[in-house]
Amino acid sequence: MKTLLIGATGTLGTAVHKELSARGHDVIAVGRSAGDLRCDISDPAQTAELYRRVGRVDAVVSAAGDVPYKPLPEMTPEDYRAAFTGKVLAQIELVRQGLAHIAERGSFTLVTGILAREPIPTGSAASMANGALEAFVRAAAIEIAPRRINAVSPNVFTESLADYGSYFPGMGSVGLDEVTQAYVRSVEGGQTGQVYAL
């Protein structure tokens, strides 16, 4: 299976890359500054060039998306636009442009996060972005069949608790191994329109 993996060199992307490769996928790793190909998916023109270069694929997998974290009174309109552009529109463009390049029964897997359902202080932009993406996934699923689309919505990673755990008090965590299995389920399974909340 030819799989295009966006955000392939981050913490999540590295784990997903390892798991999909071990399962026999031909993974094309994409990142802004590392990987097989370079692409900033917040720029639709770069996304178009990426698809032109890779051609036809069986799956598009995203582990990328940037949002600012600030207390609400300090957030600016530009901050919210940056969150929407960097996480929501960027991944929507992967789907919108990818429809012409994905196999008839191919799949898209986007990434959201726990803040769509469990907000934290300083996380309003992330909550907005994640919620918007989850709504998009459900809507897109009814239009793109037989192609499929799902989202993986993880809690903070257990492996990252030392760095980020204090921002998520009492919320637990999820191991990267469990998150990668949700990606496998989305890519290799048969479901569509799902948000795999972990």
TrEMBL record:
It comes from the Bacteria. Keywords: Oxidoreductase. It holds the Pfam family adh_short_C2. Gene3D superfamilies: NAD(P)-binding Rossmann-like Domain (3.40.50.720). Signal peptide: none annotated. The keyword Transferase does not apply. Belongs to the short-chain dehydrogenases/reductases (SDR) family. This is Short chain dehydrogenase. It comes from Streptomyces spinosisporus.
